[in-house]
Every structure is written in structure tokens, then in C-alpha cells.
Amino acid sequence: MNLKMTKSEREAFLAGLHVGVLAIDRGTEAARGPLAVPIWYDYEPGGDVWMITGTESIKYDLLKAAGRATFCVQEEAAPYSYVAIDGPVEFSQATNDQLLHMATRYLGAEQGAEYAAQGTGGGMMIASIKTETWNTIDYSKRG
């Protein structure tokens, strides 16, 4: 029985509204294991997964040092499913429009606008993961 998602299924699932888990190698702190943190993200089929992170955060420091990350989203109700990706990370300066987009995606129009009104303060970056590998499971395919 094949429980893997097709390309269109995995892209549609990843484009859905989930809180993702970002995992990053700690490098010289490897004895502690990778850093794994929940994070807001966005994705459009065929594109890169992107998230916003502050330049003062441990996420940013570790992403810069590692140059790559693993990212996972899941369906928390049965039948369970998930999409995990891995790939190199690229950075660009975050804009207020991107912050508004992300905040609205997760909080809705009114609360998203209030959240985004705080602005990027110049210390926010977009971290984009260029997907090299996909790992998926969709237990609804069990029949």
C-alpha cells in the first residue's frame, strides 16, 4: 500500500494553513541535537517555503551557519498526514508587506493588520527553503 502523496497532493497540503516545525543543525552544539521550533510559513505550489525570522534570533544564527534546514507540517487529526522537506536556505530582507501577508494568513485581516503594524524594524529576514527532498505520508490512503 502506497501512502505517499503525489506531487500535487503534497504541494496542496504544504500550501494549507499549518504551523510548521523548523529543524536546524546546531553545528558545534551537535551533542544537544538539532533546534526544532514551531513557526509560521507560506508556500505556493512550485515555489519555496518561506518564513520570517529576526536577525537577533537563534533560528537566524543557526540557519546562516548551517545553510540548510528541514521543515515539517502535519495534520493533527486522524487520518494523519504530513509533509517534510529539506534543502538549502537563502535570505532576503523582509518587507512590511510580507509581514502583513504572513500575519493576515495566520491571524486574519484585523488582528493580522494590528500585528503587522509593529513593522519589521529592519531586523527581520525572509528565510526561504529550496526543496531538495520531500517525505510524505497520507494515512487516508489506507482505505
The whole-angstrom Rg is: 16 Å
Instruction: For the record, give the distance between the C-alpha atoms at the N and C termini, rounded to a whole number.
Output: 9 Å
Query: What's the multimeric state?
Result: single chain
Q: What percent of residues are in strands?
A: 25-35%
Shape annotation: globular
- Named CATH architecture: Roll
Question: Which H/E pattern describes the elements?
Answer: HEEEHEEHHEE
Write down how many β-strands occur, each being a DSSP E stretch of 2 or more residues. Answer: 7
Q: Classify the helix fraction into a percent range.
A: 25-40%
CATH fold field value: Pnp Oxidase, Chain A
Number of helices: 4
What would CATH call the homologous superfamily?
Answer: Electron Transport, Fmn-binding Protein, Chain A
CATH class: Mainly Beta
Overall pLDDT score: 94
Major β-sheet profile: 7 strands, antiparallel
Low-confidence stretches: none
Give the count of structural domains.
1
